[in-house]
């Protein structure tokens, strides 16, 4: 065999191998990219069932991080909100914030009202709590700020008087929303939910699409929708004026569980991140 044809043959063979390897590599990369795109977001538990190390406490009249009176505690895989170590309630409204903000997501949780309302708390807090979202960072709140600038999914229970008392309402400390096509400066907007008495678990859900559509769901029923959450309105006191920029749309923020005088339990707090 002649040497020159052999060299040419070997070069052609090596080139073909290189081309084949490149094609296989490109196919592998394309397949991996397709898998990434096809991968569906997964539900993640915000509460590990053991402790609140991933959460930040802020209670009115106290510095950020001080869990006054052991208000927020974990027992039996439940976040329990209690006031048995309080004296006078003294408007010590509190919130327990998950450690990071979110923008587009689906939140699921279960709650129940238990025990007796703390008698020196304001009367409106009877069988009343909430889940705050699009909230300011608790570390930006002065010690004497009473409520976070946020939007609230208000949670209520029936008062046993036979009158309707829907849950899954919207309240707006330091914020406004667009409801039925108009900017609504009402502090609270009622949902269409049924009335649920205390001492029973109720499933709440929030679907939050940044500064666009917000949906409240109670026990599987859509009970309220609104849009364009934004800073504005009153209710909040003693805030840092550089934080409260009225008219600014809220596209993301912190999620928090509320304490305001009524013992309440939370469990099975999960989030599906829709930011993809």
UniProtKB/TrEMBL annotation:
UniProt-listed Pfam families: 3keto-disac_hyd
Top-level taxon of origin: Bacteria
GO terms, molecular function: hydrolase activity
PROSITE patterns: PROKAR_LIPOPROTEIN (PS51257)
Stretches assigned to the 3-keto-alpha-glucoside-1,2-lyase/3-keto-2-hydroxy-glucal hydratase domain: 42-271
Name recorded for this polypeptide: 3-keto-alpha-glucoside-1,2-lyase/3-keto-2-hydroxy-glucal hydratase domain-containing protein
Biological classification of the source: Bacteria, Pseudomonadati, Bacteroidota, Chitinophagia, Chitinophagales
């Amino acid at each position: 065999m002649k040497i020159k044809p052999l060299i040419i043959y070997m070069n052609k063979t090596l080139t073909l191998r290189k081309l084949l390897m490149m094609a296989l590599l490109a196919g592998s990369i394309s397949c991996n990219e397709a898998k990434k795109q096809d991968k569906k977001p997964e539900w993640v538990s915000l509460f590990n069932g053991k402790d609140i190390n991933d959460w930040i406490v802020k209670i009115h009249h106290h510095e950020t991080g001080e869990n006054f009176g052991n208000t927020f505690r974990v027992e039996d895989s439940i976040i329990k909100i209690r006031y048995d170590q309080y004296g006078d309630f003294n408007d010590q409204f509190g919130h327990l914030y998950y450690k990071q903000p979110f923008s587009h997501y689906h939140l699921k949780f279960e709650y129940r009202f238990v025990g007796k309302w703390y008698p020196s708390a304001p009367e409106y807090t009877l069988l009343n709590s909430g889940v705050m979202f699009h909230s300011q960072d608790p570390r930006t709140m002065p010690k004497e700020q009473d409520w976070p600038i946020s939007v609230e999914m208000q949670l209520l229970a029936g008062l046993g008087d036979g009158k309707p008392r829907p849950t899954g309402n919207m309240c707006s400390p330091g914020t406004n929303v667009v409801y039925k096509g108009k900017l609504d400066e009402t502090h609270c907007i009622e949902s269409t939910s049924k009335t649920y008495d205390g001492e029973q678990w109720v499933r709440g859900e929030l679907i939050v699409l940044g500064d666009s559509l917000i949906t409240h769901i109670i026990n599987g029923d859509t009970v309220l929708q609104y849009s364009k959450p934004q800073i504005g309105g009153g209710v909040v006191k003693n805030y840092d004026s550089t934080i409260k920029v009225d008219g600014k749309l809220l596209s993301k923020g912190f999620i928090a569980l509320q304490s305001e005088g009524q013992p309440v339990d939370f469990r099975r707090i999960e989030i599906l991140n829709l930011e993809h």
